[in-house]
Amino acid sequence: MQSFIVETNSELETNDARLIVEAVPLVMRAINAEIRRRKPQDITLPQLRVLAYLQDHAGISLSELAEHLGFLPSSASKVVDQLVTRGLIMRQDDPSDRRRAVLTITPDGRIILCLSRKAILPFLGDRLATLSTGERATLTAAMGLLRKLFTPEKDAHAGQSADIEMK
């Protein structure tokens, strides 16, 4: 008699989740290594993450930024200080609550973000070129689904704001 192993939806979902948990750090590690190698605009991955988040979330506080990016407040403060010193972001008193400072990306910060993203594209393009057309289409569809799943509801339309084109 032949026996069959039947995976339940729960087991399939757990396996899918494990694949995401394993793949995302690999991708981020490769991107981080390439950023360190290329040193685009002399900027670090944490600094790029701050600029990218502020591009769509102007006026947030340091604690909100730290929470979203998963930084310790002290680490977020250090990165913000570096970016303020370079003129890539501004820290201003909140007009409605002087005890709170708000962060915004500057025009120079937007330019650096755009240039840094462009610098990493050839590396990613080379990696993607090793895939078949069908595999690239599958990956593109999967990225869209991951974005949909992990974009908080309040942020769902933020990415549609005035974004700098990377063409």
How would you sum up this structure, described in words?
This protein is mainly alpha-helical. The protein has a single domain, classed as Arc Repressor Mutant, subunit A (Orthogonal Bundle). The protein is 62% helix and 9% strand. It contains six helices and two strands; from the N terminus they run H-H-H-H-E-E-H-H. The protein has helices at 9-38, 45-56, 62-69, 73-85, 107-129, 133-150; strands at 89-94, 97-105. Strands 1-2 form a two-stranded antiparallel sheet. A hairpin with a 2-residue loop joins strand 1 (89-94) and strand 2. The protein is globular. The termini are far apart.
List the topology elements:
Blueprint: H1 9-38, H2 45-56, H3 62-69, H4 73-85, E1 89-94, E2 97-105, H5 107-129, H6 133-150
Antiparallel strand pairs: 1-2
